[in-house]
Amino acid sequence: MPQPAFLLVLVLPALLIALAAVLLLRAARFRPDPAVLESPSGGEPVSVDADAAAGRLSLLIRKRTVSVREPEAAVRAEFRSLLDLLPELYPAAHMALEREIVNGRTLLYRWRGEEAEAPTVLMSHFDVVPAEEEGWIHPPFSGAIADGRVWGRGAIDTKGTLVCILEAVEQLIQAGFQPRRDVYLSFCDDEEIAGDGAPTHVRLLQERGIRPGLVVDEGGAVVEGIFPGVRGPIAVVGVAEKGVSDFELIVRGAGGHASAPPRLGTAYRLARAIRRLERRPPKPFFPPPTRDMLDTLGRRSSFGYRILFANLGLLEPLLARLFHRLSPETRALSSTTIAVTTLQGSPAANVLPAEARAGANVRVAVGETAEGVAARMRRVIADDAVELRIVRAGDPSPVSTTREEPYRIVAAAIRGTYPEAAVTPYVMLGGSDSRHFAAICPYVYRFTPYELSREERETIHAANESLPVRSLGKGIEFYIRLIRSV
């Protein structure tokens, strides 16, 4: 009678060959739907004057609309000056649309369509983060147009988007176009400080019984080289946002003179807690929107990668760990992230800190909660002397579907503008004002309609933020196509 070990030697190779055959067959069949690859006509061809739009963006960049919690009178004047300038730049839009200045500082426009039900909301913000002049090729508030680009704070984030929307509206109105449904433009002045502008707009629409059928805000863009095995441009559309939370770690002690330090002092225990969090990061996994992204882009990847993505159900734990190690971006896509950003201790080199503090910015993955993350962090730190306090709890936004008409409208406008780009959902890593609109609309999407290189993306909130004039023109084209379709 054959021995079990002998049988295993006979059967195991056959099982491995069968498994390999299944994996390869699934990979061979794992191809994009031909209908999805077809670029829609997008209606009539779109022609825009990107150079003229660049001039208007330049004027808006010169307004120093820097977000701070308590702005001085000079700063408030810059915001008012921008509000006053818009009617001069876009006269047709301001004749045709109803403009409402909410709370004396934010803008809500209504463009009446043939129907009022399920309107579209297009969003942008006109506040910017601070910018020091050091390190800039052109001063951050110069609005310089040079080397085929518009330079300055807000060129990408997001005065450029505001210009694209208003340019599209202006051009369509001049052509005699009327939308089928109402279109609202929601422009706020405090997105960069997570202010109450967008929540106020949401409450206002709620009180008026308005439930949007589609909301589009800043978010993903057309990018390359971010997904393993995929060549060519990818248009990433945010269907959800990670939660943004702020935590604080606090250790208290006696303090005293540094000449006679105790064992396990406050600074040491805080440092040990941070090290433990670094060594045991949150478990990697793929929430549903990320699985959708892997399915969409995996079908366009090289064959070796398709073997992996075609068999995601079997290989997900392995792939999630791979994404966790590949790069900071893929790590953020596959887990909650914890970034220690501030540290406080003793005010002097020879004084022991009576209290040591660390601030941590936590981006909560879809499917998790801030409270759940805090509970896990306490277990990992495993030190009762370290107090973990939630300063601000922000859970992930709801996930907007990719299987209904609103998403298809956005995807079609992208493919009409960027025919070579593969359109895919993803979870947005940053926060935007659009998360507030999830309370009144299940179809909230986040897409910035530019081709952005890694270098260009890295200038957002940094030196030398600038936008190619050509990209500005493509952004206007996207909004024209979108408005025509809704």
Automatic annotation (TrEMBL):
Belongs to the peptidase M20A family. It comes from Paenibacillus albicereus. InterPro entries: Bact_exopeptidase_dim_dom, Pept_M20A, Peptidase_M20, Peptidase_M20_dimer. GO terms for biological process: proteolysis. This is M20/M25/M40 family metallo-hydrolase. The keyword Lipoprotein does not apply. One of its GO terms (molecular function) is peptidase activity. Pfam families: M20_dimer, Peptidase_M20. The keyword Secreted does not apply. Keywords: Hydrolase, Metal-binding, Protease, Zinc. Residues 239-386 form the Peptidase M20 dimerisation domain.
